[in-house]
Design goal:
Helices cover 64% and strands 10% of the residues. The strands form 2 sheets. Strands 6-7-8-3-9-10 form a 6-stranded mixed β-sheet. It is α/β, with parallel strands linked by helices. The chain folds into 4 domains: 168 residues, ABC transporter type 1, transmembrane domain (ABC transporter transmembrane region fold); 113 residues; 176 residues, 3-Layer(aba) Sandwich (Rossmann fold); 72 residues, Rossmann fold (3-Layer(aba) Sandwich), CATH 3.40.50. Strand 7, helix 17 and strand 8 form a beta-alpha-beta unit. Helix 2 runs antiparallel to helix 10 and helix 9 packs antiparallel against helix 10. The chain binds adenosine-5'-triphosphate and magnesium ion.
């Protein structure tokens, strides 16, 4: 019931639509009662008395009533469809906004497909019910009550005979719905399995071909397809078994009316006009009854969907602005980690253990270490993708938790390890963090990131669409666009997580040249594997299983017999023996 209350909150802003819907509903209800009564008057009074002009009047009013019915039907459909769509829009906006603010770990635990289906399918089943299901349920119930009322008023014995079959019809319809519903659920499940296979095959087509597994995939899809066909056949069987029976019961109402009513008319107990009016009313009753199963089903689906939606809205974001948080001032850029210990909520081990270091404003910090040692996790703490369990991260001596997330993140430019670009033009992608940037600023950032040259060669330059429906970019080109995107933010702190891993050494050199100019007076944190990058850093820390095992200036670290020296030697050694192949040398 609490769920209904919350749903109701989404209806309130559209109360004008609700009122329009109800007015049209009531007028449909009243107008729907008139045509049978008009026919009855024509047959019983006007025709026998031979008053042809009153027949003409009655026919005219019959036409008018039907016209008004049409208008009211239009009003009802239009307003309740609109109501449903608007509510769905509000709900989807709320869900999307909430998801945007959700902490990153939520998305790790929650399957993407599940979130998608909640925001799209669950909202649409709610929308269907709120849009027309609920209104039809109410208006059908009222129609049935009022129609039976009028019928009783006309002739109660006759009414009992005429509606006798309806309880049976209602029973059959609801039972049919109970049987068909689980089958429909399975149809949807099979459908989603089928699309999953299809989607994986299309997006993973290179892997499939590389491993020559085409016939296996064809077989897999064939099996899924068979499953889909099977459950659909089952559905068709149940439907074709029941539907004729429902049809038969519906016509039984008319048959019993004619049979019993015919006798009554013949023996003058009721008038012919009443018989005709009853026939009209029976039609008014058949459809609401036949729709009953579907509407109840719609209601159940909506009731099942609603808690799933509110569950998302009720999951608080673990990382939110503290009530006392303030807007961050412009940073000078001193970055300090003080005894930072961090563990993922679903992980068994501490990913970072008592990490401490300081980078002065304007300096370049390089973080190195083996794969899985915690480098990406460490830099993720700077823009507060996660918060550490112990210790603190300070900028200019102030704990970053005391700033609002937005003002903190606006001063941090970040290039993530797995570059994500959106389906938009290159210019739009670069300007992602600052949509108001001018073309000149975009181009400047692109030049610094060494992206301008290849962008200029594209047929539509900066207006070339990329992503899903646009041109494909190579791994290195994507990285350069992502770098330009971070540089355009003019950040006080720049974080690069292997941001140049996919570009060739010469381009990387050019990028570094450009960066050393722009990064004057800003702080950079760079995760890298190439010695050439690391050697340029002012300070290096080496991570191993989440612990800082070495730290110092690159020159000092070479002297120690540790990870850095090993890396230095192996890459330098290669340089001396094979100077032409500098591109691919990495230590992981
Ligand atoms: N969201 C997460 N939830 C749970 N564990 C995680 C999560 N992200 C990373 N880990 C674990 O934390 C550890 C450190 O991961 P991290 O990505 O920081 O390593 P990395 O040093 O960046 O590695 P690489 O050089 O391969 O990029 C790994 O053992 C990884 O399995
Ligand atoms: Mg990483």
């Amino acid at each position: 019931m609490k769920v209904f209350k919350r749903l109701f909150l989404y209806v309130i802003p559209h109360c004008r639509l609700v009122i329009t819907t109800f007015i049209s509903m009531l007028s449909i209800l009243v107008l729907g009662l008139l045509p049978p009564l008009i026919l009855r008057t024509v047959v019983d009074i006007a025709l026998p008395s031979g008053a042809l002009d009153s027949v003409a009047w009655l026919v005219a009013s019959y036409i008018l009533v039907n016209l008004l019915l049409g208008v009211s039907n239009y009003g009802q459909w239009y307003s309740f469809e609109l109501l449903g769509q608007r509510m769905a829009r509000d709900l989807q906006l709320d869900l999307h906004n909430h998801l945007q603010r959700m902490h990153l770990e939520y998305f790790r635990k929650q399957k993407t497909g599940d979130i998608m289906s909640r925001v799209t399918e669950d909202v649409s089943s709610l929308n269907e019910f709120m849009g027309w299901g609920a209104i039809l349920l109410v208006s059908n119930a009222l129609t049935v009550l009022v129609t039976i009322g009028v019928m009783l008023w006309l002739n109660w014995q006759f009414t009992v005979a005429a509606v006798a079959v309806f309880p049976l019809l209602g029973f059959v319809v609801v039972r049919f719905d109970k049987r068909i519903r689980p089958i429909w659920t399975r149809v949807r499940e099979e459908m989603s399995k089928l699309t999953t296979v299809l989607q994986e095959n299309v997006s993973g087509v290179r892997t499939v071909k590389a491993f020559a597994r085409e016939s296996y995939e064809v077989g897999k899809f064939g099996a899924r397809n068979k499953g889909f066909l099977g459950v659909n056949l089952e559905r068709i069987k149940v439907e074709s078994n029941t539907q004729p029976f429902i049809e038969f019961l519906s016509s039984l109402a008319i048959i019993s009316l004619l049979w019993y009513g015919g006798g009554q008319v013949a023996s003058d107990r009721i008038s012919l006009g009443t018989l005709i009016a009853f026939q009209g009313y029976i039609f008014n009753l058949v459809w609401p009854t036949r729709m009953l199963g579907m509407l109840l089903n719609l209601m159940e689906q909506a009731l099942a969907a609603t808690p799933r939606l509110f569950e998302i809205l009720d999951t608080p974001s673990a990382i939110i602005d503290a009530p006392s948080s303030t807007t961050a001032p412009e940073f000078a850029g001193t970055l300090e980690f003080k005894d930072v210990t961090f563990q993922f909520s679903d992980g068994d081990n501490e990913v970072l253990k008592a990490v401490s270091f300081t980078v002065e404003a304007g300096q370049v910090l390089a973080i190195i270490g083996g794969t899985g040692s915690g480098k990406s996790t460490l830099v993720g703490l700077i823009p507060r993708f996660f918060d550490p369990q112990q210790g603190e991260v300070l900028i200019d001596g102030v704990n970053i938790r005391s700033y609002t997330l937005e003002s903190l993140r606006r001063q941090i430019g970040i290039v993530l390890q797995d570059t994500v670009l959106f389906s938009a033009t290159i210019a739009e992608n670069i300007a992602y963090g600052r949509p108001d940037a001018t073309r000149g600023e975009i181009e400047r950032a692109a030049r610094l990131a060494q992206a301008h040259e290849f962008v200029a060669q594209l047929p539509r330059g900066y207006d070339t669409p990329i992503g899903e429906r646009g041109v494909g970019l190579s791994g290195g080109q994507k990285q350069r666009v992502a770098l330009a995107r971070a540089l355009l933010m003019n950040p006080r702190i720049l974080v690069l997580d292997e941001a140049t891993a996919s570009v060739d050494t010469h381009t990387e050199y050019l990028i570094q040249e450009g960066l050393s100019d722009v990064m004057q007076g800003r702080t950079s944190v760079i995760i890298a594997k190439r010695l050439s990058t690391i050697e340029q850093a002012d300070y290096v820390i080496v991570l191993e299983h989440g612990e800082v095992v070495e730290q110092g200036k690159p020159r000092e670290l070479v002297e120690q017999h540790g990870y850095f020296r090993k890396m230095y030697l192996s890459q330098h050694h290669n340089d001396e023996t094979a100077p032409a192949a500098t591109d691919s040398r990495e230590v992981g």
